[in-house]
Amino acid sequence: MRYLFLLFTFFTSLFSDAQELEKSLLWKISGNGLKKPSYLYGTIHITCDASLDENTINALEATEQLYLELDMDDKSIQMKLMKLMMMKDGTKLSTLLSAEDFKMVDEFMKKNLKMSAKMFDSFKPFMISSMLFPKMLDCKSQSVESELMKITKEQNEEIFGLEKAEDQMKVFDEISYQDQADELLKTVKDDLENDKKEINEMMLIYQNKDIEGMLKMMSDSDNKITSENQDILLNNRNKNWIPIMIKTMKDKSTFFGVGAGHLAGEEGVIKLLRKKGYKVEAIQ
After folding, report:
1. Which carries the bigger pLDDT value, residue 265 or residue 18?
2. In this structure, are residues 263 and 27 in contact, taking their beta carbons and an 8 Å threshold?
3. What percentage of the chain carries pLDDT values higher than 90?
4. pTM for this model (two decimals)
5. Tens digits of residue pLDDT in 123-152
6. In the predicted model, is pLDDT for residue 224 greater than 50?
7. What is the rounded CA–CA span in Å between residue 1 and residue 17?
8. pLDDT per residue over 175-187, tens digit each?
9. From edge to edge, which strands make up the β-sheet containing 26-30?
10. Nearest 5°: CA angle at 114, between 108 and 119?
11. Residue 18: pLDDT band by 50, 70, 90 thresholds?
12. Burial of 73 (0-12, 13-18, 19+ CB in 10 A)
């Protein structure tokens, strides 16, 4: 009888762990010896509406510090990121693409950004693609991270990062430069059409607080960078963050703001924390 009970408990736990997470961007972290709860919030890096709801503002007020993916309050961060944007080993976009395709990218950038691709020939191609993100929106782009930082500064609290600029930019050395160049070329040939469709779909999923949907969209994306590199983009980073989060929460009640795609899935931050013994519950 005891054996059957243990077996039932095991399978119930397994089934429960495999269930989809609730639709919520804000999650409360408690238990496992924490004196005060901390909070985990899924952000979106570019959007038309970065306003925060009352629960999120209350969670910011209840915590003592803010941790983002990077310490965006570091005045030297932009300079560090600029230095890390270059491809290694002297690789250039003009050698990853044919002369005809590079000319097409150059003309597209001149038209949309008023800058020549030749200025960014040594940049990781994804960095060039990211410069086009604001062009994919039918509004002035806003940042959720900026809103979180604004409130944190008003509270005279510190802002930190879960990783360094070097860690984040290394991701785009691990993803094939050729794949990055090919995706940039697809964007140019399509004149941003598919990218606009994807980013609008992502904003809608985000507005619905559907973190599982965010992860699924990344998995199903036509963009090879996103769909074929989830270990590099998400899972490995999630695992690296967990020890930092645990140490941080023990010292101070903390508000963590990371991309919503990092929250969901078996290797997402929520389930990784639960496996470490923490109670992580959705704030609806």
Report:
1. 265
2. yes
3. 87
4. 0.90
5. 999 999 999 999 999 999 999 999 999 999
6. yes
7. 24
8. 999 999 999 999 9
9. 158-161, 65-68, 254-259, 38-43, 26-30, 279-282
10. 80
11. low
12. middle
pLDDT of residue 7: 37
Tokens in use for 187?
């964007």
Per-residue buried b or exposed e for 129-154, using 16+ beta carbons within 10 Å of the residue's own CB: beebeeebbeeeebebbebbbebbee
Structure-block tokens of residue 255: 């508000």
Q: Which two tokens stand for residue 53?
A: 């709801």
